[in-house]
Specification:
single chain; 131 residues; alpha+beta; hypothetical protein yedk fold; 6-stranded mixed β-sheet; 3-stranded antiparallel β-sheet; 3 helices
């Protein structure tokens, strides 16, 4: 898994996947690293009141890993501005069909920064293992 910036979806690397293989990535939350380099901790983001929700994704088959996917990322919302400048495209249930089966133009129109509230859980869990 990796990330695909929405402003790169029409480039040669992502275009075929975006045009032909869009998917929903079910998540309960996503994490970002927060803090100073070498001391980063894990901060979790979720949708209030939603146990599971969908993030926009694209996929392709790889010889090494089989089917692999990428989360589509957009500019981060104000609520996470201190932690990261990008965030995944969060898809309300009513847009799932358009993301998966709509035209590329209609799907691209869904690549928006989330305007609703986020549940933020800051932890003391280290982002990466200690050396």
């Amino acid at each position: 898994m990796t990330n695909a910036r929405e402003d790169k979806l029409h480039t040669a690397f992502w275009k075929d996947s975006f045009t032909r293989r869009r998917c929903l990535i079910p998540v309960t939350a996503w994490a970002e690293a927060e803090g100073d380099k070498g001391k980063m901790t894990r901060t979790w983001y979720a949708l209030p009141g939603e146990e599971t929700f969908a993030v926009a994704g694209v996929w392709r088959h790889t010889a090494e890993w089989g089917n692999a996917y990428a989360m589509v990322m957009v500019n981060g919302c104000e609520q996470m501005a201190d932690v990261h400048d990008r965030m995944p495209v969060l898809l309300p249930r009513a847009t799932w069909e358009t993301w998966q089966h709509g035209t590329p133009e209609d799907a691209f129109g869904l690549c928006l920064t989330w305007a609703g509230p986020l549940l933020v859980v800051q932890t003391k869990d280290r982002w990466a293992g200690s050396r």
